[in-house]
Amino acid sequence: MYKTLFDRLLSRVSPERAHTAAFRALDVFTSRPRPRALLRCYTHVDDELIQVRALGLTFPSPLGVAAGLDKDAEHFEGLGALGFGFVEVGTLTPRPQVSNPAPILARVTADRALLNRMGFPNKGAEAAARRLADRRSATIVGANLGKNRETELERAADDYAQAARVLAPYADYLVLNVSSPNTLGLRDLQSVSHLRPLIEAVKQAVSDRPLLVKISPDMSDADLDEVADLALELGLAGIVATNTTLRRDALSTPAAEVAKLAWPDGGGVSGAPLKARSLEVLRRLHARVGDRLVLISAGGVGSADDVWERVLAGATLVQVYTGFIYGGPGWPRAINLELARRTWDAGSRSIQELVGTGDARPASDQ
After folding, report:
1. Can you give the pLDDT at residue 2?
2. DSSP 214-272
3. Is the separation of the CB atoms in 70 and 87 below 8 Å?
């Protein structure tokens, strides 16, 4: 039913309008405890087979929402009610800021992809903290942090530390986003020379929350290894891999058509075209760090096969954004049911026992 709705209606309106309308409907339905609880009864898969213990928390499912969907911590209650195991809000900056000039979001439906160049539009860390302080459900919430657009790279650590201080009392974990392609110069912070003092500043400001870093799929393998080693050295809780990519060569849609749908170049590509590189990065990181860090895999996740593949390749948790946009509100429950079935068929007591254990091909291909 959702596919028909998407093809006949949602795909014909702008992504921004569709996003607003969908969340308005979800918020209306889940704004009160009783309807929210009723929805959870239909959507949640309460099964110890898919529970995951990580970051000092017990996740009801390894499947979560990546940062970018709930930018201002306004919809995490509704997303949690749909069956996601956790929601990462943001990216949040110390001070409010508007998006980059429009257009900022476009669909490439033939590739099951999105293009975005939003640039961290949000109402600021303090506004999000007030909403998180009023949490009414047990939904696990992470906060994804960034710097304001006008902040020079030399002062970036101040922004991250400030946002962390504001949000740490209300978020279950924190993520340093140094990998968005849509803030000028931000990816320079991934270099160890910049990243080390940034992490140290945030750890000095906040010491009682798990801290992770989110990295780009466009990094070289050598740079990936350096970041992994630094994360271990400085005692980070984990790595989120990956953000969107600047590369468009994995899109099957001709460049001229993509330019008409969106803009000629620039911006981040998410969705199915990111799958191969994101999986490649995950495998490299797992080979480097093993189980010493929590690896959260994001990018190109669109099916139960994809989630299963990431778990076997070393992901403790898996995040989705674009796959959910194309999959619809029933998608999380369907994925969780399939994960539970596969875990049972594998003879395991928990999906966590299977993290990084072997052949990462989807079960349907074996």
Report:
1. 60
2. EE-TTS-HHHHHHHHHHHHHTT-SEEEE---BS--TT--S-HHHHHHHS-SS-SEEEEG
3. yes
Q: Can you tell me which residue has the tokens 């669909």?
A: 107
Under a CB-based contact definition with an 8 Å cutoff, are residues 59 and 85 in contact?
Answer: yes
Query: Token pair of 245, please?
Result: 């990519």
Q: Cis before residue 91, ω within 30 degrees of 0?
A: yes
- The answer to whether residue 180 is catalytic is yes
Strands (E), the chain: 52-54, 57-59, 63-65, 86-92, 105-108, 113-116, 140-145, 173-177, 211-215, 238-241, 268-271, 294-298, 317-320
* Structure tokens that stand for 241 in this block: 């891999």
**Is residue 50 helix, strand or coil?**
helix
Confidence of residue 362 (pLDDT cuts 50, 70, 90): very low
What's at 337, amino acid-wise? L
Tell me the per-residue pLDDT of 76-127, one tens digit each, with 9 for 90 and over.
Answer: 988 998 999 999 998 999 999 999 888 888 888 889 998 888 889 999 999 9
Catalytic residue among 61, 179, 180, 303: 180
